[in-house]
Structures are given as structure tokens and as C-alpha cells.
Design brief:
single chain; 279 residues; alpha+beta; 6-stranded antiparallel barrel; 6-stranded antiparallel beta barrel; 12 strands; 36% helix; elongated; transmembrane
């Protein structure tokens, strides 16, 4: 306290000067219309700028919650869209309509990516969902923009996903315009591109054509985007197109994914194994 009084005593002239300046400024603002208007316009401008900065900082701190809410909303919309697509497939006869069990066979669970590799020959992802959330090995994984991979290992709270950027990953794919079915495979170099195999060179293929998951797999719902045709080539003495596609999923900034559960996968697999055993 003594130090405070000593400081005030030493600085009394400066403190008095500041108080008189403030008093003069107050009288000028309140007795002169021009300076009064100028002061309030300037103060309002700076106050608005400070408020904008405050709102920007507040929005930035809430981005995690906003992203989580968007992922949940996308989950709801994805479930509805898949059910509609299963109910009336684009390749089905006009009068065909699937029963309600088949149309709703796919369910989705939101997961957050907590680890991701893109530079290896065999890449993996780790998500924060495991067996406690109903996740099992073999389930497909997609993003809001396309195919991501397949669950390989999981414990109670985490799962490791075999990325589509994996030398052994294959997915049955379909060209939207021509309805031709082939196999999408990553060749291990560019994490933004894949090759599309087994498309006959005698079938028409267009650059920019969408490549989606086909009906011939039980892991992914049909119609999930994989990418778009980037280049078309034909090697000598080959019967298939040499196709390269640009992946629709950007693995460099992947944040949220959806784990796909096919409720009829076990039933389908059991029946198919029974047929194979009889051969």
C-alpha cells in the first residue's frame, strides 16, 4: 500500500495531466456537434470491428461441435437416401419394388478419424468407434463424398480401417453412363487416383463419367461414389480399357466417416457358402 501511495505521489503531475485531458475531451465532445458526431462514428466503427472479431473467435471455437452436428445430419440423410435407392434401384425393372426389409438393410454409424496414412503402400485409418458401438470386422466404411475402406480390426472403443489406398483392396464398381461393371483398384502411387479394371475396350467410356459401387457386393450400398474417369487408354493386344479415375474422397483432410452395417450380409453369405459346398 505504501508503494502505491509513493507511486501516486511521484506521478501526481502526470496523473493530473491525464485527468485534465480526459475532462477537456469530455467537454469538447459534449459541446461541439461536429466532434461529437465524429467521436461516435469512430467509436461505433471500432466497436463493430471488435464485435466481428469476437464473433469470429466464438465461431472458430465451436467448429468441432458444428462438424459433429453436420456429421449426424448427414448420417440421417444418408440412411434415408440409401433406403430409397434400395427400394427402387436404377437398374431394376420399372415395376420392381423391394420389400421393406431389403430396402432398409443398410444402417450407418458415425465415426471420427483419429489417425490416417496416405503415403504408404498399404494405408490404414483409425476411428473412435468399436465393438461397443456395434462395429465388426468386414464392415464397409464411407465418407460424405465416397468410399473409404473396410473395417479390419476392432476392440471395444476403436477400429482400424483398411483404406481404399491399399494394394490388396478391391471394390466392385460400375460406370454410371454405360452401366458396365469392373473392379476399382489402387496401384500404390497417387493417393488421389485409382485404376478401373475389366472394362471391355469395345464398350463406350467417357471422361468425367461417375464410377460408383455396384450391386454386386454386400459391403457397400450400391451407388456410393468412388470417383470419376480421368483418362482412357487401350494397350496393344489388350481386351480391356486402361482407365484411371480421380477419387472423390480427399484422404488428406478426412474427419468423419460412416460405418456401413449390412443387416442381411450374414444371411446372404451363409446361403452362398451352402451353394459352394455343394459344388
Amino acid at each position: 500500500m505504501e508503494q502505491l501511495f509513493a507511486f501516486i505521489a511521484q506521478s501526481r503531475n502526470f496523473i493530473l495531466f491525464v485527468l485534465l485531458e480526459v475532462l477537456c475531451f469530455y467537454f469538447i465532445i459534449n459541446t461541439n456537434n461536429y466532434w461529437s458526431a465524429s467521436f461516435f462514428n469512430t467509436s461505433n466503427r471500432y466497436a463493430a470491428q471488435m464485435l466481428a472479431w469476437s464473433n469470429t473467435a466464438h465461431e472458430y471455437t465451436n467448429l468441432r461441435q458444428v462438424n459433429s452436428d453436420l456429421a449426424a445430419e448427414n448420417l440421417r440423410l444418408r440412411t434415408q437416401l440409401t433406403a430409397r435407392q434400395q427400394e427402387r434401384s436404377l437398374l431394376s425393372p420399372p415395376l420392381y419394388k423391394a420389400d421393406s426389409i431389403f430396402a432398409t438393410r443398410f444402417e450407418f454409424t458415425v465415426g471420427k478419424v483419429i489417425n490416417n496414412t496416405t503415403t504408404l503402400a498399404n494405408n490404414y485409418l483409425t476411428i473412435d468407434k468399436g465393438t461397443a458401438d456395434g462395429v465388426k470386422p468386414g464392415m464397409g466404411v464411407i465418407s460424405p463424398t465416397g468410399v473409404v475402406g473396410r473395417v479390419r480390426f476392432c476392440n471395444e472403443h476403436f477400429s482400424v480401417i483398411t483404406s481404399i489406398l491399399h494394394s490388396e483392396f478391391r471394390v466392385s464398381a460400375r460406370l454410371v453412363r454405360s452401366n458396365e461393371i469392373g473392379t476399382a483398384r489402387w496401384m500404390g502411387s497417387d493417393p488421389t487416383r485409382m485404376d478401373l479394371l475389366d472394362i471391355s475396350r469395345y464398350k463406350p467410356v467417357s471422361k468425367g463419367d461417375s464410377v460408383v459401387t455396384s450391386d454386386q457386393n454386400s459391403v457397400f450400398p450400391p451407388g456410393i461414389l468412388i470417383g470419376r474417369v480421368r483418362s482412357i487408354g487401350v494397350q496393344a493386344n489388350q481386351t480391356f480399357h486402361d482407365l484411371t479415375i480421380d477419387l472423390s474422397t480427399n484422404f488428406g483432410n478426412l474427419s468423419y466417416v460412416y460405418i456401413v452395417q449390412n443387416n442381411l450380409a450374414a444371411e446372404q453369405s451363409q446361403l452362398e457358402k451352402q451353394v459352394e459346398n455343394e459344388k
